[in-house]
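Incident log, support desk, overnight shift.

02:14 A customer reports that sequence design results differ from what the structure should imply. Their input is reproduced verbatim below. On-call engineer (initials T.W.) acknowledged and began investigating.
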């Protein structure tokens, strides 16, 4: 039984008589209205305008009608051919592609193999280039990037079925997804990499074998791309290629790394974390007592004011560590404390995108969320379709450490990254502003402490609203100096091509030089 209290009744009566009535009812949104507004907005988001806008920025987009089916003359290639009409659950023909296992060296006794999936360029993709993609982890499969970030078909979080990906990077180029190092995905062999030199040796050793079979790809302009822990892989592999440690018939042009590990954990996670909580204080919604506690700890740990003092354009000199540790001093792991507190109020809190809430959407790859149906790449029919080992259990991120004794390499900002930027035509570092795993201001600090092209850091701060995404408008900032473009994107979590596909695609067009202004 519902009782209407007298003051409610009088309020209703007032509303009924009020001249405001029309305005009030005008805000009543029926289903069709909501959906049509959404659809109209979504059209802009999903449309991939590759064509040249008169007077616009995009130049030199060719249509390669001829690349629909690259043919490879080595008969060995046909064993890897994937019939695009037979990909399970994909109910259109995605066109030809090639997938399978190849060894990491030409030694007759080699038992270690990496899994790959190669896609030729789509109609607008350049035929003289090759994108290499690697996910991070360490131990996470690059097939995640294929299925949920920039492959020609997507099966994203919560999607019932796969859909065409209008922002497929095959619209730019051919692309090769590689599961590595050994221990990742379908790869074969005992994991044994000790450092990034070992990672590069496996990766490039595999590429040599790949190019023997797919020799038509030799000499292509190559772009090495990846995200997260691939912030370690990509610069070290690029350095290995530039130093010509072994012969490799590819012409490396540049790198793209999204939300990458570049420097110390204390810089990319701890120093900026309380500022990040303040910036998003209505998302975290912490109580005042806890906020006060965080502010106090922030001071004690020497993180407070660090950004104000040290994030300068141009930088004033080398950046100091806030304490003794490159991870976190005792009682100064505020990142973990914030994470735990965030989960109390929002058990669905997602480190990969802070805006997520219940209900958690299912994920056909089973990571980060669980899935109730078989994981896509662990299905027998999927494995058959792509020549994957049928007896191997596939998980998106390995349950074992693919570096059995840890990764002995230093973060790349202190070693190879400056040289890689200098030797590349262009390089992109991109960061989502809603990522909690790694925090954008931390990446900024790492870059302001790094010297490349003869100067330390960026000389000018990224200007507000400087990153304009086609059809969408300002979606963050970009600063380009000495061949390095640093992009930050609003509303994006950790996996940029998944969360902001248009923005990521556009940054790739800049990397390729087919867009003058990013
Ligand atoms: C694209 O490249 C492949 C391999 O290099 C070549 O076989 C093919 O003829 C090229 N197609 C076009 C349209 O240039
Ligand atoms: C594409 O090429 C493969 C061999 O490389 C061949 O088996 C297949 O039939 C071709 N598909 C089309 C549509 O021409
Ligand atoms: C495998 O072969 C390579 C050269 O072909 C040799 O250097 C290496 O020792 C061999 N390894 C084993 C385990 O037999
Ligand atoms: C981009 O790639 C997708 C997937 O291959 C394709 O369906 C779409 O037509 C392409 N878009 C453009 C504008 O070429
Ligand atoms: C800045 O770079 C130097 C090496 O060039 C390094 O020793 C120092 O730890 C870095 N500072 C930070 C805060 O990462
Ligand atoms: C305030 O937040 C902290 C951290 O989540 C929690 O431990 C504490 O119980 C909260 N206090 C109140 C009154 O909710
Ligand atoms: C799968 O089968 C291959 C070939 O029969 C074998 O070499 C490999 O060890 C098997 N892998 C697993 C995980 O059982």
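02:41 Re-run completed on a clean worker. Output:
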């Amino acid at each position: 039984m519902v009782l209407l209290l007298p003051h409610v009744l009088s309020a209703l009566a007032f509303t009924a008589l009020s001249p405001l009535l029309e305005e009030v009812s005008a805000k009543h949104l029926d289903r069709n209205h909501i959906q049509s507004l959404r659809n109209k907005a979504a059209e802009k988001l999903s449309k991939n305008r590759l064509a040249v806008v008169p007077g616009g920025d995009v130049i030199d987009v060719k249509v390669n009608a001829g690349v629909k089916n690259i043919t490879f003359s080595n008969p060995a290639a046909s064993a890897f051919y994937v019939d695009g009409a037979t990909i399970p659950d994909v109910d259109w023909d995605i066109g030809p592609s090639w997938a399978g296992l190849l060894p990491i060296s030409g030694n007759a006794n080699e038992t270690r193999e990496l899994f790959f999936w190669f896609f030729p360029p789509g109609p607008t993709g350049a035929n003289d280039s090759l994108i290499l993609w690697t996910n991070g982890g360490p131990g996470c499969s690059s097939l995640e990037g294929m299925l949920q970030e920039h492959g020609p078909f997507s099966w994203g979080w919560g999607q019932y079925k796969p859909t065409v990906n209008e922002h497929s990077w095959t619209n730019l180029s051919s692309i090769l997804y590689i599961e590595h190092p050994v221990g990742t995905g379908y790869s074969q062999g005992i994991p044994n990499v000790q450092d990034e030199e070992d990672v590069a040796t496996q990766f490039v050793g595999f590429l040599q074998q790949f190019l023997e079979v797919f020799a038509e790809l030799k000499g292509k302009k190559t772009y090495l791309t990846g995200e997260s822990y691939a912030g370690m892989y990509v610069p070290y592999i690029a350095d290995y290629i530039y130093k010509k440690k072994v012969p490799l018939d590819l012409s490396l042009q540049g790198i793209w790394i999204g939300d990458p590990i570049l420097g110390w954990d204390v810089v990319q996670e701890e120093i900026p974390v309380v500022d990040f909580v303040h910036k998003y204080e209505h998302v975290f919604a912490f109580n005042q007592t806890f906020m006060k506690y965080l502010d106090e700890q922030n001071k004690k740990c020497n993180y407070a004011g660090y950004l104000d003092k040290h994030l300068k354009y141009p930088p004033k000199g080398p950046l100091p560590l806030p304490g003794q540790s490159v991870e976190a001093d005792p009682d100064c792991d505020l990142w973990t404390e914030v994470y735990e507190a965030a989960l109390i109020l929002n058990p669905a809190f997602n480190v990969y995108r802070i805006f997520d809430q219940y209900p958690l959407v299912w994920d056909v790859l089973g990571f980060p969320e669980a899935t109730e149906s078989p994981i896509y790449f662990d299905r027998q029919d999927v494995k058959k379709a792509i020549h994957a080992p049928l007896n191997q259990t596939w998980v998106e991120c390995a349950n074992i450490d693919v570096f059995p004794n840890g990764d002995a390499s230093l973060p790349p900002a202190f070693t190879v990254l400056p040289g890689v930027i200098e030797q590349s035509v262009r390089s992109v570092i991109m960061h989502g502003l809603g990522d909690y795993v790694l925090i954008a201001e931390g990446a900024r600090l790492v870059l302001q402490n790094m010297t490349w092209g003869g100067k330390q850091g960026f000389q000018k701060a990224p200007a507000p609203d400087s990153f304009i995404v086609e059809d969408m408008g300002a979606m963050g900032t970009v600063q380009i100096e000495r061949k390095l473009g640093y992009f930050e994107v609003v509303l994006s979590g950790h996996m940029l091509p998944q969360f902001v596909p248009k923005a990521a695609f556009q940054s790739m067009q800049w990397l390729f030089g087919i867009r003058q202004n990013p």
